[in-house]
Amino acid sequence: MTAMISATDLRKTYGKKRALDGFTLSVDEGTVCGLLGPNGAGKTTAVRILATLLKADSGNASIAGHDLTTDAGRVRAAIGFTGQFSAVDEILTGRQNLDMFARLYHLDRRQARQRTDELLDRFALHDAADRPAGGYSGGMRRRLDLAVSLILAPRVLFLDEPTTGLDPRTRAEVWTDIRELVSAGTTVLLTTQYLDEADHLADQIAVIDSGTIIARGTPRELKESVGGDRIELALRDEEQTNAAARIVAAATGTDPGIDLHRRRVSAPAPERFHSLSTTMRQLHEAGIDPEDVALRQPTLDDVFIKLTDREEKTA
């Protein structure tokens, strides 16, 4: 597949702080890459450099085959960008916002009107098109932001935490919009604090910490990298928690994690249902009745915590 986003050894320093330290990434055409990392890991810096909003101190990058340094104009013509905060004018209507940005992109009056109507339809904003954007709901503003970023039908779209602050229903609506864009051939680089968002949308995930990519792969590959299924118990009191942990350790042959404050026990379950049934039988024999029992696969939260904890310990 063709790499629409390619970055090699990007570095960026602010004073004594090293924001990017050898950032390297490749994203194939028509896919979503989720860029995950702790606050301050370098996600936004990387996106802003790739979107030509910042200059790297060193390294190389290209977008849609155009070099970031020597062909920045063509890069800008190939990309769209939606940042963490709304870029629309709240006084103008949705229609006026789109028309204004279309004219700024040098579309003539007829082209601007046509593209505005297309995007209002695409993002289900036609009924609110002539209302001031300041009266839009959070989800409507986000859809208007996306519409603005797509005026020139970009081949590459950068989304920097596009659903921050939205309610679950509205987030799901934005996810649908993003999937439709990708199905039409757009390549997306997505940064997000919501790991379930990356799990739902991303074809591949790159984890960044201290300005460097420390892991990459599909969501499934990253989950498998931290182990198989786990038994999780929620207990009624601290005494039960410690007793349950001893039982889980014996049943699974592993060293369980214990959270006394939340009264939870978690351990790998190498034999899945056998481990679970043995644990439940022994809990029953010990007179322990857990509030909740689950056998679950690792999540991206597990991946994120393990990788970033490891990096902090070895830093």
UniProtKB/TrEMBL annotation:
Q: Supply the SMART domains for this chain.
A: AAA
Q: Does the keyword Transport apply?
A: yes
Q: State the name under which the record lists this protein.
A: Daunorubicin resistance protein DrrA family ABC transporter ATP-binding protein
The domain of life is: Bacteria
Q: Does the keyword Transcription regulation apply?
A: no
Where does the ABC transporter domain lie? 5-235
Q: Pfam families per the record?
A: ABC_tran
Q: Where in the cell is it found?
A: Cell membrane
Question: Primary place of residence?
Answer: membrane
Q: Among the record's GO biological process terms, what is one?
A: response to antibiotic
Q: Which organism is it from?
A: Microbacterium barkeri
Q: How does it sit in the membrane?
A: Peripheral membrane protein
